[in-house]
TrEMBL record:
Allows the formation of correctly charged Asn-tRNA(Asn) or Gln-tRNA(Gln) through the transamidation of misacylated Asp-tRNA(Asn) or Glu-tRNA(Gln) in organisms which lack either or both of asparaginyl-tRNA or glutaminyl-tRNA synthetases. The reaction takes place in the presence of glutamine and ATP through an activated phospho-Asp-tRNA(Asn) or phospho-Glu-tRNA(Gln). Residues 177-327 form the Asn/Gln amidotransferase domain. InterPro entries: Asn/Gln-tRNA_amidoTrfase_suB/E (IPR017959), Asn/Gln-tRNA_Trfase_suB/E_cat (IPR006075), Asn/Gln_amidotransferase (IPR018027), Asn/Gln_tRNA_amidoTrase-B-like (IPR003789), GatB_C_1 (IPR042114), GatB_Yqey_C_2 (IPR023168), Gln_synth/guanido_kin_cat_dom (IPR014746). Keywords: ATP-binding, Ligase, Nucleotide-binding, Protein biosynthesis, Transferase. Heterotrimer of A, B and C subunits. One of its GO terms (biological process) is mitochondrial translation. This is Glutamyl-tRNA(Gln) amidotransferase subunit B, mitochondrial. GO terms for molecular function: ATP binding; glutaminyl-tRNA synthase (glutamine-hydrolyzing) activity; transferase activity. It comes from the Eukaryota. SUPFAM superfamilies: GatB/YqeY motif (SSF89095), Glutamine synthetase/guanido kinase (SSF55931).
Length: 328
């Protein structure tokens, strides 16, 4: 029926290959009517030594759980001397098991027969105009949306993204839309992708929110990214700002205003940062002595104390330079 993707069970069990294949198909078919209304794919697990067919409709994110469970279930039935039945089963996400829904009919029950009334199919390989009797192949090709693989290649080519970033963005269409809208000639694509895929996703995952439920608007994300790229906030403050925007769920809030109200602006003044470093060195003579005795790793500990005392508001590069000068 055009909805079924089949692959050997051992691929799914040992490497997750089937899951990747099915997820890729789900991405390809997402803009088309091929998936059902729930965005599910049809998973069919078939025994090696039997003609039994077990079908489980599910969302692509449930594939790995269903495959592993169904493989072990069917093996258990066969090892016990039983027979795997032809049936359609349903994945119970709460119980983490598949449960029977209905029996499958045998082939002859479907009453397959030749259709004598089908008209001839005439196609035109060059003309971009459909007619009542002829289907234009170029016209159909023009209507096909860009496939995921092409989108990944375009992201790597035009934005110089690493393959793993391109794959993640294509797998999350909402984040891809964010990325395309936010990235411009003045915004570093790699840093934008890093903020979306690492910082934003981390916040959403902690709150068990789906990407499509993210309340941060594109305009807010642009403003947030600019604050970070313009060195007005640190990465740690950027994380806090994302948390604040997600929790408040107010599309009218200005990230810059939040930063100002909470006094989160990055301190870049060299003299002020140098004074903070001096205070830390005065209060940690043991670490200073260890550093001067050759334990250079202590430098990171001292720098960490400075940053922590400033609540992550100091420019790291300036603080590092000031600390090096004071320790000479």
């Amino acid at each position: 029926n055009g909805k079924c993707v089949c692959a050997p069970a051992d691929v799914a069990e040992c490497s997750g290959g089937v899951v990747c294949v099915c997820a890729s198909y789900a991405l390809i078919f997402r803009p088309t009517p091929v998936l059902d209304a729930g965005g599910r794919v049809l998973n069919e697990t078939r025994c090696w030594d039997a003609a039994a067919r077990v079908t489980v409709p599910m969302r692509d994110k449930e594939l790995v759980h269903d495959y592993r469970h169904e493989i072990h279930r069917q093996r258990g039935v066969l090892d016990a001397g039983g027979r795997v039945l032809n049936e359609t089963r349903c994945w119970d996400a709460a119980a983490k098991v598949t449960v029977p829904m209905r029996d499958k009919e045998l082939v002859h029950d479907y009453r397959f027969m030749p259709e004598p009334n089908l008209p001839p199919l005439r196609v035109n390989l060059s003309n971009r105009e459909d007619s009542q009797d002829v289907i234009s192949v170029p016209l159909i090709q023009d209507r096909i949306p860009e496939l995921p693989e092409q989108t990944r290649l375009n992201l790597m080519r035009h934005f110089n993204l690493r393959p793993e970033y391109a794959i993640q963005l294509v797998n999350e269409p909402v984040l891809l839309d964010y990325f395309v809208e936010v990235t411009s000639q003045t915004r570093n694509p790699t840093k934008v992708a890093n903020l979306l895929l690492n910082e934003l996703l981390t916040v959403l995952n902690k709150r068990k929110l789906d990407v499509k439920d993210c309340s941060i608007t594109v305009e807010q994300m642009k403003e947030l990214v600019d604050l970070f790229l313009d060195n007005k906030i640190s990465l740690e403050i950027c994380k806090k700002l994302i948390e604040e925007l997600v929790d408040l769920s107010d599309g009218d809030l200005s990230p810059a205003k939040i930063v100002e109200e909470k006094n989160w602006l990055l301190i870049t003044d060299y003299d002020e940062i140098k004074k903070s470093c001096m205070d830390v060195l005065d209060n940690n003579p043991k670490l200073v002595r260890q550093y001067r005795e050759g334990k250079v790793k202590v430098f990171k500990a001292l720098l960490g104390i400075v940053i922590k005392k400033s609540q992550n508001k100091l420019d790291m590069s300036v603080a590092s330079k000031a600390m090096e000068e004071l320790l000479k």
